[in-house]
Structures are given as C-alpha cells and as structure tokens.
Inverse folding.
C-alpha cells in the first residue's frame, strides 16, 4: 500500500453521518496489543476552541521537555497533520504503515474513518514512545472514538449548542455528553 492507497482506504470508510459508540474501538483495541496498555494523555472536549487549546497545550508540554503526541481533526491541508509528534506531522510512510495495521486488525469490524484515524494516532503515540499525548475529541465525548483512553487530565472548552441531533437539544444535555470524557 502507498500513501494514496492508504488515503483511499481511509476515505472509503464511513465518513459522513455519525456512529456514536465505543464498541468498534474496544474491539479494535482488543486486537492491537500495543493499545492495551494505557499511556499518559490529556483528553480535550468542548464546542469551541478545543483544537487551539490542544495545540497550545501540546506546545507548552513540548517546551517543558516532554515528547508529545497531538491528535486533532479535521486536517487543514494534509491528512498527516492530524497526528503530530513534537509538533511535526508523522510522515506519509508512517501513515501507510499505520493504515495497513488498522486495515488488517479491523477485519470484520466496520470501523469508521474517525475510529480508524483515532486508532492510528494512538498506535503512533505508542510507537514513538511519547511522554504524553494530547487528544481532541471529534463529536461529544462520552461515546466519541477517542474515549477509550485513560487520561490523566480532562479539559472541556466552552460549550454551546452543537450537533443537537446527536448530543441533545439543550446545553445541559450537551455538557453531559462532553463531560463523558471525565
């Protein structure tokens, strides 16, 4: 598989619509021995500013001397920028290896695009032996694919009405979903 084929595989997975739940991620985690051991991480949810907070926090941690993984979405220019080690996007060759690992491990598990990319990020962080990872949720928190991590710290940025059809139609319900990362 090359980089283009890796992206074809990933973009061929369910990308639109929402599939909330942790069953696929737990099944994938069970098939990937590297993901079975927890690692230090900070989990960030919220409606507004979570990407900025994630990037700033990762840089602060890096400047303090730690080896830092950062997982954010969506990407702005290139897929590789979703997964960073010490501020540098993983290279295309690594994306190929990570995507192939997930493709083989998922087998009959109908993983979505976000579940696959989340698993790729977690694998990259283990392979690079980061001291800590900063992980941004995609949608909500409680049932978000990223919620299989065991964080040392959870942060929630400002919350507003967001994805009401999936998270609830009032701030209290949405806050409850976002707080599900705690």
């Amino acid at each position: 598989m090359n980089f283009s084929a890796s992206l074809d595989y990933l973009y061929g997975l369910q990308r639109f619509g929402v599939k909330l739940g942790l069953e696929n991620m737990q099944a994938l985690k069970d098939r990937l021995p590297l993901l079975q051991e927890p690692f230090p991480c900070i989990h960030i949810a919220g409606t507004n500013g979570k990407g900025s907070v994630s990037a700033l926090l990762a840089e602060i941690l890096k400047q303090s001397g730690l080896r830092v993984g950062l997982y954010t979405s969506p990407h702005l220019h290139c897929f590789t920028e979703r997964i960073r080690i010490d501020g540098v996007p993983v290279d295309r060759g690594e994306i190929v290896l990570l995507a192939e690992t997930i493709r083989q491990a998922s087998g009959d598990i109908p993983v979505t695009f976000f579940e696959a990319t989340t698993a790729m990020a977690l694998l990259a962080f283990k392979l690079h032996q980061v001291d800590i990872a900063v992980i941004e949720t995609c949608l909500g928190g409680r049932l978000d694919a990223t919620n299989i991590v065991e964080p040392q710290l959870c942060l929630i940025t400002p919350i507003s009405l967001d994805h009401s059809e999936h998270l609830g139609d009032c701030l209290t319900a949405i806050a409850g979903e976002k707080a599900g990362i705690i």
Remarks:
- The chain has one domain: 3-14+23-181.
- The longest strand covers residues 41-45.
- Residues 3-14+23-181 form a domain with the UDP-N-acetylmuramoyl-L-alanine:D-glutamate ligase fold (CATH 3.40.1190.10).
- The helical segments are 3-12, 23-31, 50-63, 92-106, 113-127, 164-167, 171-178.
